[in-house]
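Re: How this chain folds, sequence and tokenised backbone to follow
How to read it: Take the token row as a discrete description of the fold.
Start of record: The labelled sequence and token lines come straight after this line.
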Amino acid sequence: MESLDAKIDTFLAAPTVAVVGASEDPYKYGHKVFVCYQQHGRKAYPVNPNATTVLGNTAYPDLLSLPEKVESVSIITPPAVTKKVVNDAIKAGVKNLWMQPGAESPEAIATAEAAGLNVIHGGACVLVVLGYRE
């Protein structure tokens, strides 16, 4: 079994990431995660069906609508939504998922792992790993 650090390294090696649950609201974690990737010079696409833009970036309604294929996806959604995100990720050929704390569901984790995806869950937070600055 691959270590958590190895899973995170694989996730972060992707040239582009999508942030599902990205938000304009600075108090929401989806906003903070999107900003964190920007702070670290990473190309990130915001994904939110209820937004047209996030911080001046075009927001996409789902992973299948992105203008390019992404290998890694951060998920900051309620667990019930995470299940749909996982199914979209599988269809879109995503290789790595990082379910931020609170987004996980046992069913979504099992579905993603059964499809062979690298799945990070269970408490590791990208804001801590990369270092988010307010």
Summary: Strands lie at 16-20, 43-47, 53-54, 57-58, 72-75, 96-99, 118-120.
